[in-house]
Amino acid sequence: MKQVYKQLLLKLQEYLPDFKIANAVIHFDEASPHMHVVGVPVGRGFKRGLSTKVSKRSVFTPQVLSEVLQDKMRADANHYMKAIFQQEIKEKKKGKNHDLTVAEYKVAKEEEKIEKLSTDKIGLEADILVLNHKKSTTQRVLDELDGEIESSNIFLKALQKIKQFIQSYLPFAPLIEEFANHVERGSDIEAGNSFRGLFTALGELLNSFKEIIKDGLCWFPRLMRWQTSKGEVSPVFEDNRNEGYYYRLKSYMDIHTRQEYPKELIQPEIKPENRTGTIEQLAQNVEAVEKQVQLMGVGMSQNHKCQSWQNKK
Predict the structure, then answer these.
(1) Averaging pLDDT over each range in 23-32, 86-95, 249-258, which range is the top one?
(2) Run of H or E residues at 248
(3) Could you tell me if 152 and 300 lie in one domain?
(4) CB 254 within 8 A of CB 262
(5) Could you tell me if 174 and 248 lie in one domain?
(6) What radius of gyration, in Å, describes the C-alpha atoms of the chain?
(7) Most buried among 95, 177, 197, 222, by the most CB within 10 A?
(8) What's the Cα-to-Cα distance from 21 to each of 10, 14, 41, 151, rounded to whole Å?
């Protein structure tokens, strides 16, 4: 409506250049929005006194009142309503600008009362429909929140189990770091003494995580990975002594596609900053997710209380 009235104000200035507008205010406090315009009508060509002075009659002549303020401005209003709202204004009714007989006036007032009663009834029915819709929507939201809270509790329990699993491996962090350092240097790993049949601490860890690829080749994708330009890879070792105590770094394999790449191609990217899936990282990620879920749980709980209160109201 502001856009409509802005355009009408420009039109008014165009039609009546001698009406100097000082102030224009749109009122939305009644059934029909309307604008109050305050200005100074400037009359010109006076023979007595000043030739130019304030003169309402000079500007607002009967012709101006009828043709401009009633016909042209109404046509313009209808045009802008169509352009902005895709609606037309109501047909002009008899009112202030038309003298009514006593009988016409009484009939008009009765029509207004009937129209108001009808409008009030429609309004009440609409309010009832809206309230019923809100009630059903609120109940649905409450049911969904209950489901989300239950799912969150299950998720938190699963996170707790993962956290306990990770914590059980934290004591092996130094051995895992030693393994990673060997890989990043591209060096072989002496896992034990073949003559005495004893494993080193690192050898025992590798033995528990060893996954056989084929005869003589193994890898440890659950122990340490590196993100490279070829994807996330884990080292492939060969037991060239065929004794199970000595690992020689041979190549790298994509943990998802199992595509194998030569050691010389991937080794420059095997660096500490490219490590992924370490025990420390997993622990940090689980802790971060756990906190986030707890925050979500608090938010859902507060929302649940608010929705319950609104539902009761």
Answers:
(1) 249-258
(2) strand 246-254
(3) yes
(4) no
(5) yes
(6) 42
(7) 177
(8) 10, 11, 9, 65
| Dihedral sign for Cα atoms in the order 259, 263, 269, 274 | positive
Q: Which residues contact 135 (CB under 8 A, 6 or more apart)?
A: 311
Q: Per residue in 254-287, pLDDT tens?
A: 999 999 999 999 999 999 999 986 665 666 555 6
Q: What is the pLDDT of residues 173-216, one digit of tens each?
A: 888 889 999 999 998 888 876 555 677 888 888 888 889 998 88
Beta bridge partners of 214: 217
Domain co-membership, 153 together with 87: no
pTM given for the model: 0.40
Residue 292 has pLDDT above 60, yes or no: no
CA–CA separation, 252 and 236 (whole Å): 5
198 located within any domain? yes
Q: Which of 266, 269, 285 is nearest to 277 (CA)?
A: 285
pLDDT digits (tens, 9 = 90+) for 215-240: 889 998 888 899 999 999 999 999 76
Domain membership of residue 98 (yes or no) is: no
100 in any annotated domain? no
Number of domains in the chain: 2
Residue 241, both tokens: 């002594």
Q: Distance between CA atoms of 217 and 247, rounded to whole angstroms? A: 9
CA 242 to chain centre: 59
Distance of CA 63 to the CA centre of its chain: 57
How far apart are the C-alpha atoms of 55 and 45, rounded to whole Å?
11
| Together in a domain, 208 and 279 | yes
